Amino acid sequence: MGTALVYHEDMTATRLLWDDPECEIERPERLTAALDRLRKCGLEQRCLRLSAREASEEELGLVHSPDYVSLVRETQVLGKEELQALSGQFDAIYFHPSTFHCARLAVGAALQLVDAVLTGVVQNGLALVRPPGHHSQRAAANGFCVFNNVAIAAAHAKQKHGLHRILIVDWDVHHGQGIQYLFEDDPSVLYFSWHRYEHGRFWPFLRESDADAVGRGQGLGFTVNLPWNQVGMGNADYVAAFLHLLLPLAFEFDPELVLVSAGFDSAIGDPEGQMQATPECFAHLTQLLQVLAGGRVCAVLEGGYHLESLAESVCMTVRTLLGDPAPPLSGPMVPCQSALESIQSACAAQAPHWKSLQLQDVTPVPTSPSTHSPEGRPPPLLPGGPVCKTAASALSSLLDQPCLYPAPPLCPAVALTAPDITLVLPPDVTQQEGSALNEETEAWARAHESLAQDETLTALGKLLYLLDGMLDGQVSSGIVATPPSAAAATLDVAIQRGLSHGAQRRILWLNIRGKEAAALSMFQVSTPLPVVTGGFLSCILGLVLPLAYGFQPDLVLVALGPAHGLQGPHAALLTSMLRGPAGGRVLALLEEDSTPQLAGILARVLHGEAPPSLGPYSVASPEDAQALRYLRGQLERQWKMLQCRPQTR
Ligand code: Q9C
Ligand code: ZN
What we know:
Blueprint: E1 2-7, H1 29-40, E2 48-51, H2 57-60, H3 66-74, H4 80-87, H5 99-118, E3 122-127, H6 149-161, E4 166-170, H7 177-183, E5 189-196, E6 223-228, H8 235-253, E7 257-262, H9 279-289, E8 297-301, H10 307-321, H11 337-350, H12 355-358, H13 391-400, E9 414-415, H14 436-447, H15 453-472, E10 478-482, H16 487-500, E11 507-512, E12 520-522, E13 525-527, H17 533-551, E14 555-560, H18 568-578, E15 586-591, H19 596-606, H20 622-635
Bound molecules: N-{4-[(3-aminopropyl)amino]butyl}acetamide and zinc ion.
């Protein structure tokens, strides 16, 4: 299933006809710049192109009053002076004789996209539209927005498709107060918005943009505001907001559809936003949303006024919707204090309404390693004895050490070629005489003499070939199946090869072996991996992904041992989400008694397909939550992406 791109060139018609410094940035070139770049990058050609239709007046009536629709309809016949006078009655608005037509196309484009996704024509898509929509209200135009494209799309998804849970993610740099007002008492629409706020000193200067506006009546907790109180927020701040605030809520909400108010004025270079997030960040945000709702993501353009930054960010979004792995994020992955304050206050405001946030550090956590553990659980094992060495030093000693542990007995390994994944494996690598690979493989085999030589050479050769393909960028990801007894050897080969290939490789290794061997092990940090959905998600969102985003590995090895205890959907989600911080380079090592279905499901997510839904949320056990808090408390000084509140000192 593909990606739709919905557009109509008539939407370039509306433009400012008089002098107005506030409105002049919303211009036709925004659409043409984005589309040109999509073409140049070959992305438009990979999408299903849909020509936008006009929304009907009945559809506009899903959220707007009849009088307001009439008022906008009548602007079609007004002259310039009258248009300017009418525009002046609204905040940051201009009308043009083509406005009614364009604004109906913008709504129609969003509706077509939702219809295409919900009828299974495509998996996801982007509607490239103007005018934008998220500031528009029941009876008012506002902030360049005439009709509320995304709000109408949500209402339509409920009414025409019978959906019960829709998530709206508004990553535009302005608060989409129009969407908030339209759904503030509606628990079937969860609205998340981050926005430049500066303690209320930034447009639209609303008290109700702050974190303590959480919805009302039945909709309490279904409005989520994350106000940024400083400009300059960057990649780490945005990713932290998703991991620590949006995604826990979103998994608990379990949406059937994700609508994105995709404004790119939150990207670097934008004159309105003054933020620092690079275009690649939008690939990551998109990828993080694609694990929800079975991958049904509909992005609809809102703002974005720096043409270069806008065009590149749009490409990043579409490329990710198409299933390509997100490029690595630049810059230090350290959220700033102001961002952490905002995230913390939003979490605090939402915690009464969401189980998934109650697990977070609402009580003080130990800030330095202690020698005794909290009640009920042994302390997480760090190398060199109980909790006497920080994970960071464990990590650096790990990276300095090419040989990680004594060579285990070696057994045949099998490289599995899954149907949906491109693994370019030669029929028999060991037959290629004189190849460097062959010498290396033989050297390995000589060092471990008790081998069934032929089989092992072939198997390890395939593994090395796959790894080299990944490290050279010819193959993005892979799956290797091994007999259980060979798993350690395979891992050893994989890690040594990864570390010796070129300079300064950073490998993140997740060893998930089940209860009998301390479930999750990372940089030699061990923690139990809960199997209950809530505990599993807290572990992934609150520990594994922050560590991975902070570490920025060149390669992730996920080893699933015989008793890994994960259900297919859990393993798929973990694997899928690890593609983000690793530039897609994830190698899954499965021990052979894993079901073939598991290999199939992992192959699909590594190829860019959405993981299956985890289903209803079940809360983590107090013990799991406690163990996780304890570990985070120990690690967060070194791994800043783990923080979800400002440091006290
Ligand atoms: N310098 C959208 O991005 N002007 N609308 C604010 C502050 C209004 C933005 C002035 C900005 C409207 C869809
Ligand atoms: Zn905006």
